[in-house]
Amino acid sequence: MSAVVRRATIGSSGVAVSELAFGAAGLGNLYRPTTDDQAVAAVSRAWERGIRYFDTAPHYGLGLSERRLGAALRGLPREDLVVSTKVGRLLVPNPRPTAQDTEGFAVPGDLVRRWDVTPDGVRASLEGSLDRLGLDHVDILYVHDPDQAWPAAAREGLEALAELKRDGLVKAVGVGTNAVEGLAELLAAGLLDVVMLAGRYSLLEQPGLRTVLDPAARAGVAVVAVGVFNSGLLGTERPQPGAKYDYGDAPAAVIDRARRIAEICESHGTTLPAAAIALPLRHPAVVAVALGMRDAGQVDENLARYGSDVPDGLWADLVADGLLDPAVPTRKEP
């Protein structure tokens, strides 16, 4: 049976995202090359099967992801699509070009990323993204990894994004980050429509529950969960040595914990990846889970996981075994 991809709206913005979102880092050759044909096939399959939210960033392949995503979306009805990209890293010519990018993307290093969250830098970044995407607007704009820039970067960038929102150039603004520090203050200040939180609310760890998701729910701010496979460790039914976790090699203790979770999933007739997708969607603040998809096969695989039945009893057993925070919501109200 084909999965029906549900939709959810981001606060009062009117932006309705599909619960399963297409993460386009792989279209930027994350870790290894993706072909143009694979990229087009992946986006086309996602569209055919009901995915309507597509996320990218200049950082992904030094603009390659945006170019490929824009080319693949061309001809589809714009009013039915939600596209997000990010600001904070301007792409500028590399004074010392390298054969390959140094930040994990299999592309030539002819450009370099420069941090800039000033109003002029943010506008220049958006203009560059729109040119690469071939669009006249994006629906959601995030400040990308501000914790990696400087302490006040998130607030500075969000103030610049608020100006773009007032000008009608974007509909919703937020932060995309894998750090939870400082987000509660930004939520309380009313600067966010949406948070894209990477890796901090998953089957393995839930530090974002009390620091981000619960405050977001109280503030009426949406959360898009990403990194739910924790760099791949939770993306296989039985994690093996050599698996990646949090952008590096998974420690043996973490692999063991993932295997224990996998065994309980199997006892309930489901899989580790299916449960990894299902868990964040139980929280009232979470409107979507974004997964990386670099070819049509990965789209089909992720949709099958999203559409599979994950029994409610699984969560109780994980809590009983000390593998899940007892405060994690396990049943989302309709």
Determine Rg (CA atoms, Å): 19 Å
Helix-strand pattern: EEEHEHEEEHEHEHEHEEEHHEHH
Mean pLDDT: 96
Strand order, largest beta sheet:
3-4-5-8-9-10-11-14
- The total strand number stands at 14
**What oligomeric state do the depicted chains represent?**
single chain
Helix proportion of residues, in percent? 25-40%
Class from secondary-structure proportions: alpha/beta
CATH class: Alpha Beta
Helical stretch count? 10
Proportion of residues in β-strands = 15-25%
Question: Can you describe what's shown?
Answer:
The protein is globular. The model has no long low-confidence stretch (mean pLDDT 96). Strand 3 (20-23), helix 1 (36-48) and strand 4 form a beta-alpha-beta unit. The two termini are 22 Å apart. It contains 10 helices and 14 strands. The longest helix has 16 residues, at 252-267. The protein has 334 residues and is of the alpha/beta class. 35% of the residues lie in helices and 20% in strands.
Short description:
This protein has ten helices and 14 strands. It is an alpha/beta fold and 334 residues long.
Topology at a glance:
Elements: E1 7-9, E2 16-18, E3 20-23, H1 36-48, E4 53-55, H2 64-73, E5 82-87, E6 89-98, E7 109-115, H3 119-133, E8 140-144, H4 153-166, E9 172-177, H5 183-188, E10 194-198, H6 208-219, E11 222-226, E12 244-245, E13 248-249, H7 252-267, H8 272-281, E14 286-292, H9 296-307, H10 313-320
Parallel strand pairs: 3-4, 3-14, 4-5, 5-8, 8-9, 9-10, 10-11, 11-14
Antiparallel strand pairs: 1-2, 6-7, 12-13
Helix pairs in contact: 1-2, 1-9, 2-3, 3-4, 8-9
